[in-house]
C-alpha cells in the first residue's frame, strides 16, 4: 500500500488516515483545513487502501449490502500502520470512519502502544 505525506515530515504530531480512490484527491483540501484549524506542526499520512472492504475488515464475510464481500486483510493494514508509528517521541492520531474507525479501535485495544490515540 502506498502512503502520501502532507506537511512537515519531522512533525511530532502525526495523523494517519486510510483512504481510497475517491478520498485521495480530497487530501490536499483536508490538509489545508487542518492547517487552518491549528497552529501545531502536523504531518498527515494518507494510507491508500486497495480495497476498503478487503483491507480494513478483520475477517472474511459475505456481502452485507451490494455484491462486495469482506476480505479479512485488516491484520496486514494494522502492520503497515504500526510501522508508521515507530518514533516514540511523536503523538499519533488515527483517523477514519466506518471500517477505518473500527480498524483503529482494534489496533488501540490489541496493542496498547504509548502515544497512539484514537
Lay out the secondary structure.
Elements: E1 3-7, E2 13-19, H1 27-37, E3 42-48, H2 52-55, E4 60-61, E5 70-71, H3 74-84, E6 91-94, H4 99-110, E7 116-117
Parallel strand pairs: 2-3, 2-6, 6-7
Antiparallel strand pairs: 1-3, 4-5
Tell me what you see in this structure.
This is Esterase. It comes from Selenomonas ruminantium. With 118 residues, this protein is of the alpha/beta class. The protein has one domain (2-111). The chain has helices at 27-37, 52-55, 74-84, 99-110, and strands at 3-7, 13-19, 42-48, 60-61, 70-71, 91-94, 116-117. The strands form two sheets. The chain has a five-stranded mixed β-sheet with strand order 1-3-2-6-7. Strands 4-5 form a two-stranded antiparallel ribbon. The two termini are 21 Å apart. The model has no long low-confidence stretch (mean pLDDT 84).
Question: What's the total count of β strands?
Answer: 7
Structural class: alpha/beta
Average pLDDT: 84
What share of the residues does DSSP label as strand, in percent?
15-25%
Strands in their spatial order, largest beta sheet: 1-3-2-6-7
Which spans have pLDDT < 50 for at least 5 consecutive residues? none
Give the fraction of residues assigned to helices. 25-40%
> What is the makeup of the main sheet?
5 strands, mixed
Q: What is the terminal-to-terminal distance? A: 21 Å
Listing every helix as H and every strand as E from the N terminus to the C terminus, the arrangement reads EEHEHEEHEHE
* Radius of gyration from the alpha-carbon trace, in angstroms: 14 Å
Helix run count: 4
What is the total domain count? 1
